[in-house]
Amino acid sequence: MNKIRVLVIDDSLLVRKVLTSILETADDIEVVGAAENPFVAREMIKKFNPDVLTLDIEMPQMDGITFLRNLMRLRPTPVVMISTLTEHGAEATLEALAIGAVDFLAKPKGNAEAGLADYTTEIISKVRIAARTNLKTLQGHEQAAQHSQEILAIKRMIAARNATGFEKIVVLGSSTGGTEAIKVVVKSLPADFPPILITQHLPAAFSDSFVKHIDASTDMTASIPTHGQVVEWGNIYLAPGDKHMAVIRENKRYIIQLEDSEPVNRHKPSVDVLFHSAAKCTGANAVCVLLTGMGADGAIGMQAMQIAGAKTIVQDESSSVVWGMPGAAFKLGCADYVVPLDDIAAKILTLVKSGLR
After folding, report:
1. Is the pLDDT of residue 146 over 50?
2. Which of 93, 190, 253, 317 is 20 to 30 A removed from 17 (C-alpha atoms)?
3. Is 318 considered catalytic here?
4. Among the options 51, 297, 316, 342, which is catalytic?
5. Cβ contacts of 177 within 8 Å, gap of 6 or more
6. Is the distance from CB of 290 to CB of 315 less than 8 angstroms?
7. Residue 233 binned pLDDT confidence (cut-offs 50, 70, 90)
8. Which residue, 96, 110, 95, 112, is CA-closest to 54?
């Protein structure tokens, strides 16, 4: 089996050395070069033709975002970004994912070598996933299905609905590739729409930047909720990066609960926590969605929601960056619908329409 050929790009000599030594502990990975800036990287790409790049965001002479944009235009290659856990780093990382980067890894605080050593499993996993990624899944969603006559008709029906007693709710989970996939889904939803609760695997430092990106991409209002907040029509609630988000039912209202408990499925927030809570209080009033993501977080929770009567949707394999989470739900037999990313909004709207009163 051919090894995955990786080029490391980082202006820090220490980081280049540590990333190289970590990646080469994997039998199926070979680091073909390490470049201190994009200009050196450009020549190494021509020479070594790597399968995957790891790319620092903040570099002198040319920043990682500019280099990535040029790369995706001239020579598309799977990229894993190396990001700092700062507001600037979060904004730049989300921009990189929008341009076409597959995933990112946050630089650890403190001693770089010791911190990155703890990330060995994660780095290797992300590089392996990147090497298998079809870059077409990261691009080309501008003509999504929101212009179809069916969706326009459903929007008009929703706008005319009587809100009294309306209890529909949408819960959604995602991970690798999800930051862009979520925008594709919500950008076609009208402002007058049932509430959406979303758990996306992201570090806490990225939460504020991510919610701004989502809010700017939809007519709905996106925010990070507080504990005990009442769920309201026309709102998208994104789990903060350091707490689990759950939902309960009190006095005919949905209430958000934020839990500072242990990680579930190695994640905090965890999709399973959200889905299991929704299964207990929403029943057939919920639409449950799993988008692209590595691992299996959310699959068991989706099964619980289906048993409770919810309609369930998973993103199909061909449009997913990683068919881990949706694939796990599919294998459990708890996916009512397997849908391409560009058609998921239409399916959600159709299922919501079926519950209009």
Report:
1. no
2. 93
3. no
4. 297
5. 102, 103, 137, 138, 291, 292, 293, 320, 321, 322
6. yes
7. very high
8. 96
The helix (H) or strand (E) run that includes residue 289 is strand 286-290
**Count of alpha carbons within 13 angstroms of residue 329, beta-carbon side:** 37
Domains detected in the chain: 4-138 (3.40.50.2300), 145-353 (3.40.50.180)
Catalytic-role residue among 175, 188, 207, 320: 175
Question: Is 244 annotated as catalytic?
Answer: no
Exactly one of 141, 201, 213, 244 is catalytic; name it: 201
Transcribe 202-238 into DSSP letters. Answer: --GGGHHHHHHHHHHTSSSEEE---TTPBP-TTEEEE
Q: Is 213 a catalytic residue?
A: no
> What DSSP letter does each residue of 162-177 carry, written as one string?
--TT---EEEEEE-TT
Query: Going by DSSP bridges, is the β-strand pair 253-259/244-250 parallel, antiparallel, or unpaired?
Result: antiparallel
Q: Where are the alpha helices (DSSP H) in 49-206?
A: 64-74, 87-99, 112-118, 120-132, 149-159, 178-186
Strand 286-290 and strand 169-174: the pairing is parallel
| Segment 55-77, tens digit of pLDDT | 999 888 889 999 999 999 999 99
Over residues 118-144, mean pLDDT: 78
Structure confidence by residue, pLDDT tens digits, 306-343: 999 999 999 999 999 999 999 999 999 999 999 999 99
How confident is the model at residue 144, as a pLDDT? 43
